[in-house]
Design goal:
- It is globular and about 100 Å long.
- With 746 residues, the protein is an alpha/beta fold.
- The chain folds into six domains: 98 residues, PriA, 3(prime) DNA-binding domain (GIY-YIG endonuclease); 68 residues, Arc Repressor Mutant, subunit A; 185 residues, P-loop containing nucleotide triphosphate hydrolases (Rossmann fold, 3-Layer(aba) Sandwich), CATH 3.40.50; 178 residues, P-loop containing nucleotide triphosphate hydrolases (Rossmann fold); 60 residues, Single Sheet (Rubrerythrin, domain 2), CATH 2.20.28; 92 residues, Alpha-Beta Plaits (2-Layer Sandwich), CATH 3.30.70.600.
- It has 20 helices and 31 strands.
- The strands form seven sheets. The protein has a seven-stranded parallel beta sheet, sandwiched between helices.
- The structure holds adenosine-5'-diphosphate and zinc ion (2 copies).
- One zinc ion binds next to loops.
Length: 746
């Protein structure tokens, strides 16, 4: 028998099949999806490869497979091949995402070891113990305890019986007890204690939502749903009851959440409902050992529910019954490095293959997702809308006040705090209620704005804020390449109060200290959150110690319950509005709606103050009442007019390398190739130009942007062009990437 093998390599030239003979003794074991070791090029080293097909004969003279490493399912291999075409990358790169963590090829020698722990057992039977030979009460006490409690660890015995390490050692010497090394699971949940989380009686809306999904489960058909409900409307309860039903049917579930919302609070609810044995968690903060062991537990069907961030979509779940993606609008579901996949698209593919439902949940759905709930004629990508319109525990939505910072400036207030926010913080400090101050900052781009009238410099072609490049002292559009000189006088009102924006949390902290010296403060941003648990620690500290003010970026807004937080202040809502991205309005609306959801989730009513220079921006105005429907209607019109997603896809072809001249030439060559080949598919290819950040780590960066619908035919055409480019030979340190609908345009 012959196996077609793909070599594990990122080299584009190796993105093809090689034939190998399957040794007789492995004939029954090696299948499609096997990870094998094969001799390659010279016979000295073995390379890792993946079997993608098995056949009887080959026309070549072939070498033999040297060893078997792991068996993936055939379904996973199929998925990897589909991904490679869709996301323009090597099959082996995709397969890597599906392998057991900690067993990757390059570290075969230093392969992860199973974790072993010492457990204590009796070494002799009870009758064989000569009590008289036991010196003192301590040894007697220890023996009695161990007899009753075999299989504990040494620290456990010391803890529970109060005997010392020496006592245990001397019993081992006498042969009365034995220490055995046993393999244990590194379980990230092992130390977690949770309160029981009782099933709630569903509201009518929740009931209806569950019923609709259940119907599709009974029909054994793929169906996609959007569970759209304001924060606190009981989406999580719906997830839990759906998962319960799926498990009752003997199947398993995957729940994806944004990395940052994998909080203890959220896990507590699931553990409290299902017990920790049934749950596996996967996220980047786990040690490689923990990830390895969780993966194995899933594979061996010991856990039924996988809760994890983006890459958990590839977990080796057998007998899958449902996939749920919470906060589906979150940008972390899209990978920004190769393979540049979108977990929502992968989920759709997996659910289709398995004829099971896919549930997307959000309070502020992705515009593209919501658009698909309105598709009347197109059936295959239509999403069924499930609505939860009320907060489940009857708490009211917070009162939102929008403050015009231009007016504050006019009355001479040059601090970061408007008169209103200042007053409310003071009140909160007096009442011992907590405050969150939120800095809406994405990326590090700087933009220019008139402090008098709120005018920002925008690209004449794209309706997107221009980004200031200090090095060249130019304003640039990252979409079409338009550039102009920064102005000193506002083109709108003639004022000279032009400001360069870009505020940090640190600066806010300084100002808070100055204005409210008596307040206790805690800060959370990428600088303070680096250690394994410090995200959790900071939030716990804030809650437990009743710290007066929490200052933070995006991280503070996701999925936390702070009963004592009654005030949320958004220091400056504008920065996400002025990012050079067509999603600026959407991001702003999402963030503000989520921040507002942090205030007054329980008995205490919440207040939110949104400070802005653009009080009339519809994204800011509509976030006030969490009016998603109207926001959607306004935004989708704009997208249609400007031809942005969902009306088209944005394709970015990126080039990088050490020689600027070479990269520039290469991009021109690719541009011509794409333009000729994609013209018939109604795709507009724009001229190549330097990337917004045109040099990173001494590598020059160019790129081509194209707009149009990326269908599977378009995919094939682009792949063919790419292959042609590689075959024509490009220099070794030159890199080409293709990303469809990336999160950022850098
Ligand atoms: P979401 O996920 O939409 O933010 P949650 O599921 O967290 O909402 O629910 C918000 C609060 O309402 C939680 O405290 C939850 O326990 C409670 N809740 C949810 N469903 C119900 C229900 N059917 N009856 C009573 N309380 C509910
Ligand atoms: Zn102005
Ligand atoms: Zn432009």
């Amino acid at each position: 028998m012959i196996a077609e093998v793909i070599i594990d390599s990122r080299a584009k030239k190796l993105n093809r099949k090689f034939d190998y003979k399957i040794p007789e003794k492995l004939e029954d074991i090696i299948t499609i999806g096997s990870r094998v070791l094969v001799p390659f090029a010279n016979f000295k080293t073995l390379e890792q490869g993946y079997v993608i097909k098995i056949k009887q004969n080959t026309e070549f003279e072939v070498k033999e497979i040297a060893g078997l490493e792991e068996n993936l399912s055939e379904e996973k291999i199929k998925l990897a091949r589909w991904m490679a075409r869709k996301y323009f990358c090597n099959v082996s790169e995709c397969i890597k995402l599906m392998l057991t963590p900690g067993t990757k090829s390059k570290d075969i020698e230093k392969r992860l070891q199973d974790k072993k722990i010492n457990f204590v057992y009796m070494g002799v039977s009870e009758n064989d113990i000569d009590i008289n030979s036991l010196r003192g009460e301590k040894q007697k006490k220890a023996i009695e305890f161990i007899m009753k409690n075999q299989g504990l660890t040494i620290p456990e015995i010391m803890n529970f019986s109060g005997v010392s390490r020496e006592t245990i050692n001397s019993l081992v010497k006498k042969g009365y007890i034995e220490i055995k090394q046993e393999k244990v699971n590194r379980n990230p949940l092992s130390l977690k204690k949770s309160n029981e989380n009782k099933k709630l009686k569903l509201t009518e809306e929740q009931e209806l939502a569950i019923e609709k999904v259940e119907n599709s489960i009974e029909e054994k058909k793929f169906k996609e749903f959007l569970l759209y409900g304001v924060t606190g409307s009981g989406k999580t309860e719906v997830y839990m009851q759906l998962i319960e039903k799926v498990i009752k049917n003997g199947k398993s579930a995957i729940l994806l959440v944004p990395e940052i919302s994998l909080t203890p609070q959220m896990l507590d609810r699931f553990i409290g409902r299902f017990g920790k044995d049934k749950i596996a968690v996967l996220h980047s903060k786990l040690s490689i050992g923990e990830r390895h062991d969780e993966w194995i537990r899933i594979k061996e069907e010991k856990s039924k529910i996988v809760i994890g961030a983006r890459s958990a979509i590839f977990a080796p779940v057998k007998n899958l019954g449902i996939i749920i993606i919470d906060e589906e609008h979150d940008s972390s579901y899209k990978s920004e490095s190769s393979p540049r996949y979108n977990a929502k698209e992968i989920a759709e593919k997996i659910c289709k293959e398995n004829n099971i439902p896919l549930i997307l949940g959000s309070a502020t759905p992705d515009i593209n997702t919501f658009y698909r709930t309105n598709l009347e004629n197109i059936d295959d990508r239509k999403i069924t809308l499930l609505k939860l319109t009320k907060r489940a525990n009857n708490s009211s939505l917070p009162k939102v006040k929008i403050v015009d910072l231009k007016k504050e400036l006019a009355i001479g207030n040059k601090t970061m705090f408007s008169t209103l926010l200042h007053k409310l913080i003071e009140e909160n400090l007096k009442n011992k209620h907590q405050t969150i101050l939120f800095l809406n900052r994405r990326g590090y781009s700087t933009f220019i704005m008139c402090r008098e009238c709120g005018y920002t410099m925008k690209c004449p072609n794209c309706n997107i804020s221009l980004t200031y490049h200090s090095f060249q002292n130019k304003l640039k559009c990252h979409y079409c390449g338009h550039e102009e000189n920064p102005v000193n006088i506002c083109p709108n009102c003639g004022s000279t109060k032009i400001r360069y924006f870009g505020t940090g949390t640190q600066k806010i902290e300084e100002e808070v200290k100055k204005e409210f010296p008596e307040a206790s403060i805690i800060r959370m941003d990428v600088d303070t959150v680096s250690k394994k648990n410090s995200h959790e620690e900071i939030l716990n500290k804030f809650k437990k110690e009743n710290i007066d003010i929490l200052i933070g970026t995006q991280m503070v807004v996701k999925g936390h319950h702070f009963p004592n937080v009654t005030l949320v202040g958004v220091i400056e809502a504008d920065s996400s509005l002025n990012i050079d991205d067509f999603r600026a309005n959407e991001r702003t609306f999402q963030i503000l709606t989520q921040v507002a959801g942090r205030a007054g989730r329980e008995q205490l009513p919440g207040k939110v103050v949104v400070q802005t220079y653009n009080p009339n921006s519809f994204a800011i105005e509509l976030s006030k009442g969490q009016n998603y429907d109207l926001f959607y209607k306004t935004e989708i019109e704009l997208r249609k007019q400007l031809n942005y997603p969902p009306f088209c896809d944005i394709i970015v072809v990126g080039f990088s390398g050490r020689d600027n001249n070479e990269i520039s030439k290469l991009s021109t060559y690719v541009y011509k190739l794409l333009k000729t080949n994609l013209e018939n598919y109604n795709i507009k290819v724009f001229m190549p130009m330097p990337a917004p950040i045109d040099k990173i780590k001494n590598r020059y960066r160019w790129r081509i942007v194209a707009k149009g619908k990326v269908t599977s035919e378009v995919n094939i055409v682009i792949n063919k062009c790419l292959q042609k480019v590689y075959n024509s030979g490009i220099s070794k340190n030159t890199n080409i990437i293709i990303d469809v609908n990336p999160n950022t345009m850098y």
